[in-house]
Amino acid sequence: MTVLADDTARVVATLPAPARLAARLPLGAGPRAGIAEHRRAVRAIVEGTDDRLLVVVGPCSVHDPEAALHYARGLTAVAAEYERELLVVLRAYLEKPRSLVGWKGLLHDPDLDGGEDLAEGLRRGREFLLRAAGTGLPLAYEFVDPFLAPFLLDLVSWGAIGARTVAAQPHRQLASALPMPVGMKNAVAGEVEVAIAAARAAGVPHVFPGLGPTGAPAVLAGAGNPACHVVLRGGVLPNYDAASVGSALELLRAAGLRARLMVDASHGNSGKDHRRQPAVVAELATQVAEGRHGLMGVMVESFLEPGCQEITATPLRYGVSVTDACLGWADTLGCLDALAAAVRARRGHPRRPSPGGE
User: Fold this and answer.
1) Domain boundaries, position 239
2) What is the pTM of this model?
3) Where would I find the beta strands (DSSP E) of the chain?
4) Which of 2, 155, 259, 295 is 20 to 30 A (C-alpha) from 24?
């Protein structure tokens, strides 16, 4: 282990260059074309040229790749059933943001034992994303650490910047350079304005330091990402109700942005109680069915079995989250069915001529 000159940190291991990891675990031409098509489809929904609903659904954070792939295979069939109404995207998060301390996700701790084997986590994480992409589903990913983005971003069709990092300049710069639409969550306490500011900032070009494909420090240039948008996830109070969604759409218009947004049925909007997510989805479905075209997406935390468990449990229960509590499979199917029915109803409500299509 090398001690740095100022004694503030120790080098405990080295990481492969992003290009080397990609060479070991390559994305083939077929899946690459599929991901490009998925990104186009997501972008069309964000821009309003596709009237389907974008639904990001899956576990809070992947801790068991085999269970997550089991979930993905089931979701593939459901996504095909609802493909006329919904674009279903698998939530494939491998990093877990923390307000204080705790398990930081598969990339940081792949063995769930505090070993912090980041090199092995990157290998397993990329392998999981490759296998998940092989199901044919688009993949969603929250970019928690900008340094790790180059290792995985080629596999992602929809990205997120979370509530704890949405105000950070490095994350806004990263979003400006990402090749997929990116959702900006409102801040932890619920402030929507910070997410709007993030979408505006990421929509313009930036030059910033980062990690190049060869692993060398590099100067990166983001051209600006016009497909950045706001995600309402609640805060001290929920913000999924019609008045809150309408207010956020007006704030977007006032900021000169596209008046379209996504709502997270979990986190602050469910009071961190997974059992409340179906009620949140039902309210959102009502808004969609009544003609709210600016509501273009919904996020649901879901896994094979409902609830959550401690990461220290022995043995761990299969298909149960070790982070946020999730909906089980049966309730997830009910949510997707309600959202699909709402899209069919919304198609009977022509868009109003006001900006954003509300």
Assistant:
1) 54-349
2) 0.95
3) 2-3, 10-11, 53-58, 86-91, 139-142, 158-161, 182-185, 206-211, 217-222, 229-232, 261-264, 295-301
4) 2
